[in-house]
Amino acid sequence: MLNKRYGLPHYGRRLLDARYAGDYRIRVRFDDGVEGEIDLSDELRGPLGKPLKDLDYFKRFCIFEECTLEWPNGYGICPDVLYASVVEPLASV
Q1: Which 3 state secondary structure label does DSSP give 84?
Q2: pLDDT by residue (tens digit) across 55-79?
Q3: Which of 15, 75, 84, 86 is in Cβ range 3.0-4.6 Å of 48 for a Cys bridge?
Q4: Distance CA 31, CA 12 (A)
Q5: 3 domain residue, yes or no
């Protein structure tokens, strides 16, 4: 099944942990044990992404409802996008 919004597979994974890893990188861990680091430096676009370019604000993320990585202004990244960002680079190695 595809995530219709992004055209990605629907992984159905829960995000268990997210930690700041420096610059615009976040280390994530999912309920199936998959973990990795995601660099969001090229993803912070639009009116909601602009405030996140301030590193102090960027660090204020949380995990919303055990799945979405979210910031106080409502900017969020769904778990399918996060999961694909971790597993797809690993598949090409």
Answers
A1: helix
A2: 999 999 999 987 899 999 999 998 8
A3: 75
A4: 10
A5: no
